[in-house]
């Protein structure tokens, strides 16, 4: 980051899991936008019965700590999916490129079951 600090994504994920008991799993990504600004995006998979509509941005920012204090932060929460294809483990991610060359696309429950 510009101020010489580092954002350790694995450590940030562990802090989120520790401080947010309604989060089952998460992924933290720091990337530069086309305009050069550094942003943090966080994907949360929630425990069963957690409210996906609840804004968790402040809790996530607090869990990540000082590195996230002055950066734009986007937090997206997904409910745990309970279907035969996912075994209740939440969204499944495809790491294979799509026709458009994109990686990391979230699979639908049907695609997961068919995989």
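Sequence proposed for the structure above (115 residues):
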């Amino acid at each position: 980051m510009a101020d010489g600090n580092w954002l350790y994504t694995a450590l940030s994920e562990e802090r989120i899991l520790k401080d947010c008991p309604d989060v089952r799993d998460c992924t933290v990504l720091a990337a530069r936008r086309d305009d050069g600004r550094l942003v943090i995006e966080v994907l949360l998979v929630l425990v069963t019965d957690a409210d996906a509509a609840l804004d968790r941005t402040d809790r996530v920012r607090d869990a990540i700590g000082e590195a996230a204090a002055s950066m734009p932060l986007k937090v997206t929460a997904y409910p745990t999916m309970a279907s035969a294809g996912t075994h209740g483990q939440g969204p499944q991610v495809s790491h294979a490129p799509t026709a458009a060359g994109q990686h990391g696309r979230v699979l639908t429950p049907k695609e997961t079951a068919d995989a």
